Amino acid sequence: MAEQATEDRRVRRTKQRLKDALNELIVEKGYDRVTVQDLIDRADVGRSTFYAHYDTKDDLMMSQLGPLQEQMGWALGSDRALTESVVASLPLFEHIAEHHEEFRAMIGSRGIALAEEAVHSALLEHIGEELRRRERQGERHAVPVDARAGFLAGSLMAFATWWLENGMPYSAAQMDEMFQELTRTA
């Protein structure tokens, strides 16, 4: 059992080194110009080690979105989401603030398109679930759930992109407050 725990730590360290390498290289070179060879050189791991964990650099990049999606899923199930807002946007704004250099460097790249698609898809799913839960509890709205979910997910993505492209003039908490105000009746 001790051997398994050691292996798990090594795997976690290796994955973290690869993620750190990707983030550094995105800022230095831009996502589209980063190669698997760049990643393994920077992380100081072998090619077979890289491929033991990820199929492509896109898979590595997408693995970094998992914690954000989990955090947003948790936030959507929180007391705040149940009583006030359909969309708990603060985790997204905090994630962007924490990784703003990488996101700015990825604007216009294939990487940002992949990230946006994954986050948008997760938002649609979580928002739709929350809206359907509210309907089951008797809340009614003139606009169908799927349309509202699409509007809210798209609005959040557009608002977050605006924030990033304009140099993040407000804090993550301020962006969350503004988004909540803008979508209060959605």
Any idea what the shape is? elongated
Question: Uncertain spans, ≥5 residues at pLDDT below 50?
Answer: 78-83
Order of helical and strand elements? HHHHHHHHHHH
Beta-strand residue fraction? under 5%
Q: What is the CATH class of the largest domain?
A: Mainly Alpha
| Count of discrete structural domains | 2
State the helical fraction. Answer: over 70%
Distance from first to last alpha carbon? 52 Å
Q: Give me the secondary-structure category.
A: mainly alpha
Rg is 19 Å
Q: Determine the CATH topology of the largest domain.
A: Tetracycline Repressor, domain 2
The major sheet is characterized as: none
SS element count, helices: 11
State the CATH architecture of the largest domain: Orthogonal Bundle
Feature tags:
186 residues, mainly alpha, Arc Repressor Mutant, subunit A, Tetracycline Repressor, domain 2, 11 helices, 76% helix, elongated
Chain-wise SSE layout:
Layout: H1 2-29, H2 36-43, H3 47-53, H4 57-63, H5 66-76, H6 79-83, H7 90-98, H8 100-106, H9 110-136, H10 145-165, H11 172-182
Structure description:
It is a single chain. With 186 residues, this protein is mainly α. Helices cover 76% and strands 0% of the residues. The protein has helices spanning 2-29, 36-43, 47-53, 57-63, 66-76, 79-83, 90-98, 100-106, 110-136, 145-165, 172-182. The N and C termini lie far apart (52 Å). Residues 78-83 have low confidence and may be disordered.
